[in-house]
Model the fold of this input.
Amino acid sequence: MANLKSIKKRIVSVKSTRQITKAMKMVSAAKLRRAQDNVVAARPYARKLREVMERLAQSQESDPHPLMVRREISPRALIVLVTSDRGLCGGFNANISKATERFIKEHRDDYSAFTITTIGRKGFDFLKNRQKIEKNYVGVISKPTYQAAALIAQEVIQGFIAEEYDDVFLFYNAFRSVMSQDITCEQLLPISAPESNEEVENGVEYIYEPTKGELLGELLPKSIEVAIFKAMLESVASEHGARMTAMDSASKNATEMIGKLTLIYNRARQAAITTELTEIISGAESING
Amino acid sequence: MAEKLLMDLVTPYRKVLSVEVDEITATGSLGEFGVLPGHAPFLTSLKIGELSYRHGGITDHLALNWGYFEVEDDKVTILVETAELADEIDLVRARAALTRAEEAMRKLLPEDKEFRKYELALERALIRVQVAAKAARK
Done:
């Protein structure tokens, strides 16, 4: 029977899909662990850098560093959006891209223009027809390196210094757990002086070498690099987490579908046998009769 | 007063070291300096250079790239972009990098944009070879 055959074919095809989604889940699980380790390993550096920055900003000299200057007149914004290069990870990329669009809509009155830099292909694909995208970095997100982050940071800083834009925001998926990611928006530039929760040091004078201003001047660009690097790591970990969850539910759905199809297949088979039997019996009866 | 310094060395990729040491020598942006327990609070940036620390009777060496060095309360925090322990350095590779940088520099004029890049590469390679050689001698 043609119908039986086509059902059988469906079952086989769903089974092979399930095999793929299962394999992808395993791969993501392995990658997730690595990505997670990287996030954890990067944390002490970011934290220490922040501590040093706090100490320097605490005793700030009169004129602020160019990267800390807030420009008021008709500000333009740059949005740095971190997504993944590859799909099949549920709502991971769509969610963050939509959040970016929403942000633009909400702040249309505050800024005269928006430009977007995307890291990762998916965000670029999502926004390319709707927004003005200045730059797109593809291929850096699959294996985030500090060098790549530093390069992106330097370009962002250059644009800021050249007054192409006045505020810079960073959008990425922060890793909370395997199941959930937090859509995060951070203001990268201008850098607001970190509020220190430490009480003023009890009269202990620090020795600075070279001067405090010079140190801060070196440190601020570094902090942008680290922020972007951290965002990339978090995003990668989130991506694998999201893909793992998506592939897990895809495998579950496939299993469910196979069950349903098998049931239909067996029913159809039984119906076919029953008709055949009836035909044979009625045929035999007509001979005997 | 504590008699030891607690040294933390971190890079963006990992926490490299967290050890108790007796003495640290590093290359700051204004030159080499040493730190002993009881040092006044101190913050400096580091150049491409060598870091050595003594714990017990042993002295260990590291090759560092750009970074920060902070002392407070006998706690030393070192933030660097890259740090290579002496025995992690591949001496053959470091020597090859050194010759490569030297050759590239010979062809370029100091005005060239590339010159600075190779100058830095040369510096890094030089430090690496130096540090690795010290480790090999032990």
